[in-house]
Amino acid sequence: MTILDEINANKRREVEQAKAKISVEELKLSPFFKRSVNSLKAALKADGASGIIAEFKTKSPSKGVINDQAEVTEVTSGYVAAGVSGLSVLTDEQYFGGSFENLAKARMANPKTPVLRKDFMLDPYQVYEAKAHGADLILLIAASLSKDEMLHLSETAKALGLEVLVEVHTEEEIEKLNPLVDLVGVNNRNLKTFEVDLETSVRLSKLLPAGVFKISESGLSSADHIHYLRKAGFKGFLMGENFMKTASPGQACADFIKQL
User: Fold this and answer.
1) 167 is known as an active-site residue
2) Active-site residue (options: 144, 201, 218, 242)
3) Catalytic residue among 14, 55, 129, 163, which?
4) Chunked in runs of 10, what are the mean pLDDT values of the chain (260 residues)?
5) Which residues in the chain belong to E strands, given as ranges?
6) I need a surface site. Which of 24, 127, 140, 220 has the fewest CB within 10 A?
7) Residue 57 catalytic?
């Protein structure tokens, strides 16, 4: 069993427990259900966009604890002040130290910035959770889903007004894409081995459908990486650890964007 298999098995248990506590109808009562959604796609298209999607995460299976002192409101506000195009907030608690509280706090602190719910999405119920806690878009990991499952989750997201970011790592996973997908992220990290290779983005970029918005994820740590990937057609760059491992993630992000 890979770490991804383990995470997904645990996530399915968590979802069943959540369903037993809070119904979809109760999730729909959240004030966040009434808000208009911010578009990450539009933010990445904007003139002068940095393209940086800065992530708040305190730990990961590959790195262990990254920063357990960081406060989500302070960090995400710092990211926005630095000029990011969007925010990504982990909601998986067991493996990434995330929470819905962090997602909601990031939303409240940054009302006009697109916020991604970063988690292992396997069930339509989780899409309602994302909306109920202030997310503007969801992440679908192709390695975890069949083509039909991805379509069903995409349809659910669209019905709630959310954008869809699909993450791929192999040529075979590209075959699972559907017309409802707004953005495609290429994960440079193999979720089964956690090895990172930037050339994964460059290689798969040539195989993605024409006109799709491309985002590169994982292993990005220098302005040279961003310039290199822009030449390969990428508009967005998901970065977390590079900022979160510092004492002041917001300042680290600002310093990075200035280099661009």
Assistant:
1) yes
2) 218
3) 55
4) 92 98 98 96 97 96 90 98 98 97 98 98 98 98 97 98 97 97 94 85 95 94 96 96 96 97
5) 52-56, 59-60, 64-65, 86-90, 115-118, 137-141, 163-168, 183-187, 213-217, 236-239
6) 24
7) yes
Residue 221 pLDDT: 94
Contact yes or no for 183/157 (Cβ under 8 A): no
Please name the residues in contact with 175: beta carbons below 8 A apart, sequence gap of 6 or more.
Answer: 147
Query: DSSP per residue over 209-231, as a string?
Result: PTTPEEEEES---SHHHHHHHHH
Q: What is the pLDDT of residues 220-248, one digit of tens each?
A: 999 999 999 999 999 999 999 999 999 99
pLDDT, averaged across the chain: 96
Q: Domain total for the chain? A: 1
pLDDT at 193: 77
DSSP 189: B
Write the CATH number for 129.
3.20.20.70
The confidence score (pLDDT) of residue 189 equals 87
The two three-digit tokens of residue 71, written as one number:
């406060």
How far does CA 122 lie from the centroid of its chain? 15
Range of the structural domain that residue 224 is part of? 3-259
d(CA 174, CA 37): 27
Check 187, 188, 201, 216 and give the catalytic one. 187
Q: Which listed residue (11, 59, 105, 118) is catalytic? A: 118
Active site residue 171: no
Task: Tell me the three state secondary structure of residue 79.
Answer: helix
Opening angle at CA 242, ends 194 and 91, nearest 5: 70
**Annotated catalytic residue within 163, 167, 173, 241:** 167
Q: Pairing relation of β-strands 52-56 and 59-60?
A: unpaired
Q: Is 16 labeled as catalytic in the residue annotation?
A: no
